[in-house]
Design brief:
The protein is an alpha/beta fold. It folds into two domains: 154 residues, no CATH class; 35 residues, no CATH class. It is 45% helix and 24% strand. Strands 1-2-5-4-3-6-7 form a seven-stranded mixed sheet. Strand 3 and strand 4 form a beta hairpin. Helix 1 crosses helix 2, helix 2 packs parallel to helix 3 and helix 6 runs antiparallel to helix 7.
Length: 192
Amino acid sequence: MQRIGYSPLYVLYCNEHAIRLWHELNKKQPAFIDATDGVVYNKKKGREYLYYEICFANPTPGLTSIPVAAMLSEKHDVPQIHHFLSCFQHSEKQVYGRSNTSQPQQINTDFSMALILSVLKCYNTETLNDYLDRTWKILSGHGTNNDLKKTVLHVCLAHVMKNVKSKLKDHLSKRNLEFCMYFFGLLINAKY
């Protein structure tokens, strides 16, 4: 897949080998999607472009991740990211047929709401509220088999901790902030 758009400006890229790798790996291990800004800068327009990548962790420790699709875009919003994911999904359908596309087991992302909403919309046809309701059903023992088949969205713990800390630091003393962060860490790692 290679697509180029002008308004907004974007370039999408993947190849058949990457699609086949995606098709096999996403059933067994988590995929990652992230955006990095500042990779390309247009001096004329005074604008940075974001580089998006869908990848898997390399099975060999210490080696770089394995990219399966990429996009360069001037936008960081749900329509643009959803378009990227949908084009990638469409490419998988072209290789494997409509009835043989894979449902990712888990997708990891940072705390970007645009990425979160795009992943939920593309792979689960869900809103954030639908996802939270479904998650609650599963955790409370009322989830259906269909609920369990959908993609699990995982937000990076480091990003969660950073966001919690930034929200609390203006309201708590340093000592209380450290205690709250310690307690929040225990809460996140708690098992029932």
